[in-house]
Design goal:
Number of helices: 1
Strand content: 35-45%
Number of strands: 22
Largest sheet: 7 strands, antiparallel
Number of domains: 2
Radius of gyration: 19 Å
CATH superfamily of the largest domain: Jelly Rolls
CATH topology of the largest domain: Jelly Rolls
Structural class: mainly beta
Strand order of the largest sheet: 2-3-4-11-6-9-13
Amino acid sequence: MLERPHTEFIHAQALPWRRIPPGSARADAEYKFLSRDAQDGACSCLIRYPAGWTREVTECLTADEEFYVLEGEIVIDDTHYTPDTYAFLPAGWPHRRMHVPRGAVLLCFYSAQPDPAPLITDAAAIQRAKQRAAPFLDVLHMPWDRSLNDAKLAHLGISRKDLRCDPETGERTFLSMILPHSEPPGSRGPTETHPTVEEAYMINGSLVGPHGEMFPGAYFWRPPGIPHGPFGTRWGCVMLIRFVGGKHKNVWSETEAPFDWNAPYRPVVPEEHAHLARSSWRPAGIY
């Protein structure tokens, strides 16, 4: 799950949609891999379902499934997931019917290769899955937590919506909002590292850092111990962030690094995405 190359950062718009083949759990939908572990199949991806897509089969997945709805609606059994809803469904969680009335795009995370499997029947396994699950969160209507947990990030005015925190591993998923006109004081600041993987997807807004400017659709997978920052944003942003492989902690450098509003796109990408480093994707202008 953790053996993925450093990716910082790519824009999903630059990746092609590919059709999920027959026999797969989400056959005939389309996907874009954002990152993937070649050893165990754990992956982060976008999945796009066409209008009318339906799957009626009693089964579960061999992997934990975590998703956030970006567009459209997907119905799993009797639960309607609409934009800005979220779920964490552990391996073995039952699916009996899935239906997409008008099309949908989901940001998805799988802890291993998401293969279909028969429903589990072991009572202890079922109970453990229920304890770990977050079957439905209406994130749109959750309040923002404006309490700050690190004074060195005060200039960003960060607010959060906690979606999941694993009591055993400390792994965490949350939305992070940064206020407009946020920049490091004096255009300099310390860098930070974490003892865990940090993974993020930009949902809205933009954020400037040493590797360039991230727009909606930007994604990074940052292994433990990679220095990053400082960051700033003109008009704010909202990102979905995951800390994977343990409890996250901010470790700050003693020295400071410069911040540049005009930092060019200098990505760190795996070999398969080397061509993306030669040109930065940018959204269409608003003027």
